[in-house]
Specification:
With 352 residues, the protein is α/β, with parallel strands linked by helices. The protein has 12 helices and 12 strands. It has 2 domains: 190 residues, Isopropylmalate Dehydrogenase, CATH 3.40.718.10; 141 residues, Isopropylmalate Dehydrogenase. The strands form 3 sheets. It has a 5-stranded mixed beta sheet with strand order 2-1-3-12-11. Strands 4-5-10-8-9 form a 5-stranded mixed beta sheet, sandwiched between helices. Strands 6-7 form a two-stranded antiparallel ribbon. A hairpin with an 8-residue loop joins strand 11 and strand 12. The radius of gyration is 20 Å and the shape is globular. Bound molecules: nicotinamide-adenine-dinucleotide, 3-isopropylmalic acid (IPM) and manganese (II) ion (MN).
């Protein structure tokens, strides 16, 4: 039995998360005749903030530490500034539990189309550094009330931080056994300290993996390459900010945000990891019942895999593939089905 903290959050997060919970539960019952997950819901997020002046209670991180994993919908509300909402909930969780790896697969499901012509076989994974870099939260303001208003935002690159994420990417490539290639993406021509350290760590770690092909790209050229030769990527490792940006680009060329799952992992199983779709709260479609729940369902599947229920992951992925082939699709994938109908479609395929 695994204890899961569920934080639906804001906007479409609340619309897609129940699908993830019910698909996980049904998959477990189909395979094991019982639900191996116990879910506890937390109503934290922007509406909680509007009521209480904070995104989550003071002891929230202590409460979460009791769980095996966290399942998050999305955070972000049109009436509360993003730096308050995200720094009040999502980012503190990643920091507190040192969830230093974010695995972000870009996979083109059979039956969906890439916006890129002649690309029907895309399958690569972005390993995003998730604990430091440009998100280290170091900086401040001075002289805000006069003409010398100044802000400082510092990126932090530690050797340990670079080595551990790069090693994770190589191990991931080895286990994936796909093209056995790791591409490191930086901007060390302009960012001459942190990203030079990163590049050096990449060279150092790569020596331990002689069977894995390596490639080191600058982020501007890498964006172009992701569009003109996306099929050549296997595992990509990048800093926090670059991994964030590249994962939206990766989603954009493999069916969109509606099918992009992600994890925030601390490989130490003693602390909870967190699973969430790559997408945000999508205020432009909130309340319409048309949000694609697949990104959230696939994030839950990643969680089951992480918690060693590999059969549950496999079953959910097979069912998602089948319901896409059955053309049970929301608008973002060219269909006319509702969030609810897609959830029901996946659930039907779990049992059939
Ligand atoms: P977004 O990912 O919410 O939306 C981008 C576009 O993709 C929108 O047009 C949206 O309708 C579409 N989209 C996203 N998810 C979809 C889905 N499941 N089905 C169909 N279409 C989908 O990004 P944004 O608009 O830049 O951000 C909105 C809010 O979410 C902001 O407050 C932002 O800070 C926040 N945000 C939160 C997270 C998170 O909680 N992990 C991630 C990204 C953005
Ligand atoms: C993501 C999101 C977050 C990030 C934001 C909402 C802080 O964009 O998970 O991709 O940048 O990490
Ligand atoms: Mn993002």
């Amino acid at each position: 039995m695994k204890k899961i903290a569920v934080i639906p959050g804001d906007g479409i997060g609340k619309e897609v998360i129940d699908g993830a919970v019910s698909v996980l539960s049904k998959a477990s019952v189909v395979l094991y005749k019982e639900n191996v997950f116990k879910f506890n819901y937390f109503d934290w997020g922007s509406e909680y903030y509007i009521r209480n002046g904070q995104m989550m209670p003071g002891d929230a991180l202590d409460q979460l530490s009791e769980f095996d994993s966290i399942l998050l919908g999305a955070i972000g509300h049109p009436s509360v500034p993003d730096h308050i909402t995200l720094n009040g909930l999502l980012l503190p969780i990643r920091r507190k539990f040192d969830q230093y790896v974010s695995v972000r697969p870009s996979y083109l499901w059979k039956g969906t189309n890439s916006v890129l012509k002649n690309n029907n076989d895309l399958d690569f994974v972005i390993i995003r550094e998730n604990s430091e870099g440009e998100y280290a939260n170091l900086g401040g303001f001075v002289h805000l009330d006069n003409d010398y208003a100044t802000s400082i935002q510092t990126a932090l690159f530690t050797k340990q931080g670079c080595l551990r994420i790069i090693k994770y990417a190589f191990e991931y490539a080895k286990q994936r056994g796909n093209k056995s290639k790791v591409t490191s993406i930086t901007k060390s021509n302009a960012q001459a300290y942190g990203m030079v350290m990163w590049d050096n760590c990449f060279k150092e770690v790569s020596k331990d993996y002689p069977d894995i092909e390596t490639e080191s790209l600058l982020v501007d050229a890498a964006c172009m390459d992701m569009v003109r030769r996306p099929e050549t990527f296997d595992v990509i490792v990048a800093s926090n900010l670059f991994g964030d940006i590249l994962s939206d680009l990766g989603a954009g060329i493999t069916g969109g945000m509606g099918v992009a799952p992600s994890s925030n992992i601390n490989p130490d199983l003693a602390v909870p990891s967190m699973f969430e779709p790559v997408h945000g709260s999508a205020p432009d479609i909130t309340g319409q019942g048309i949000a694609n729940p697949l990104a959230s369902i696939l994030s839950a599947a990643m969680m089951s895999d992480y918690l060693d229920y590999k059969e549950i992951n496999n079953l959910i992925r097979k069912s998602v593939q089948q319901s896409i082939l059955d053309k049970i699709l929301t608008k973002d994938l060219g269909g006319t089905n509702s969030t609810e109908e897609v959830i029901k479609g996946v659930e039907y395929n779990l049992e059939n």
